[in-house]
Amino acid sequence: MKTSLQFKLSQQLALTPQLQQSIRLLQLSTLELNQELEQLLADNPLLERLDDPLQDCARIEPNGSIVRETGISAPSDSGEPAPDFNVTEGADSGDQTTSSLDHSGERSDDERNVDWSQDFESRTPSDDNDEERTFAQVSDGERSLREHLMEQLAATRAQPLDRALVELLIDNLNDDGFLDASLEEIGDLIPEELDVDPETISAALKLLQSFEPAGVGARDLRESLLLQIDSRVQSGKVGGPGAWSLAREIVDAHLTLLAAKDYTRLRKLLHCDDDLLREAQALIRSLTPRPGAAYSIAQANYILPDVVVRKTRDGWRAEPNPQAQPRLRVNDLYAKILRSNRLAGSSNLSAQLQEARWLVKNIQQRGETILRVAQAIVQRQKGFFSHGAVAMRPLVLREIAEELGMHESTISRVTTNKYMLTHFGIFELKYFFGSHIATDSGGAASSTAIRELIRQLIDAENPKAPLADGRIAELLGEQGFVVARRTVAKYREASRIPTAAHRKVL
Hints:
The protein has 22 helices and 11 strands. By secondary structure, it is of the alpha+beta class. Among the domains are: 146-209, Orthogonal Bundle (Arc Repressor Mutant, subunit A), CATH 1.10.10; 221-295, no CATH class; 436-503, Homeodomain-like (Arc Repressor Mutant, subunit A, Orthogonal Bundle), CATH 1.10.10. The strands form 4 sheets. Strands 6-5-8-9 form a 4-stranded mixed sheet. It has a 3-stranded antiparallel sheet with strand order 2-3-4, with no helix packed on it. Strands 1-7 form a two-stranded antiparallel sheet. Helix 20 (469-478) crosses helix 21.
């Protein structure tokens, strides 16, 4: 076999580090982008941020104005000067008061000679009015379920062994207030030398179940609801005896039938009329299935829109949200030092300078790309911004990609976890894309519009005779939309709307 050398000319796409960074930043959400920037700012001393995402807390109104925490509305791009906050108390009455600082920036002699102790004494309330003074109540923060139960345990006169058992049971409660472990498993955790019998553990559980909130310490939903009913009976917060006894019987043996809303079988098994069954159902619905949820620390998830849609003279227009666009720059001092001193040992700083320039450019390009895609969506979905979801047009990623000259994967990255603020609320950019649904006239409708029509039909239905999926498909067909029953069921489940049997009421 003879070896030889050959020349071959070909083209291939090379992902440079700058392009890889641009793709990675494009698919990040605003929160993930800020976390990424914090790490990059800590690693690169030549990069600095001009804005602080935690310093300027504000919210954006649907009309596009930015409302600060002080309650002053500052519409962006209005061209109006910022309000003067250095207004003295006498300005409203027409008095012209001078500033406490002179032109040199120092206080006047009259102000330096003021005896502030006299003013303080005049503002200090006398001892005779101690009873009329009110003090600000300082909140000690939210208490957890365990702290709330331990405070009630400390107020009891239980024996030390019983206290230890109740504390052990409290430690085995989940966030919903249910006991995860069985009594046998709890008994295995107790040392054998204590010689604790199961009856003692059951008595400790009874003590725990007598605490607030009612239903805590239960081992399942049925036991929790029974404890809540008994607690209301003891406090006299229930209706007639027939209602709570019927509610207790339903929870004890027929909770599955109530969840399925099989009222016919319930009336037959319980020998009751509709009025009594309705009253018992209302009592059960007033109970909480998660007694410990009120003491769980809920973490709020905030969404910062990337673009804001406003109505102008030329129509609907998408504008960037300044709070969602980070402002970065390269440190001028370090950049000048590197340009003036070409030292051999500054290769690391030179690389960091280049990375900082890439990042600033990629952040700017990311904002421009999001804005271009958002504006293209607004132009395609003008009916939504004027009339709501029922006027949504069918739209796919390919159409936006062809219009902007981008790849579909790029449009997919841009529309994922990016949000748009409209006068209807905040929506993800992917919300405006929907598949085509044929109409009897040969046209097409968006699946989002079909889901909205299904929701409107269900909202207007008779609760005692809810619409089945087949009937909804027939009603949509009468309006000109060719939709199958299984398609209606799929859209209904996607909108988290229960079936007709579960929507039925007495």
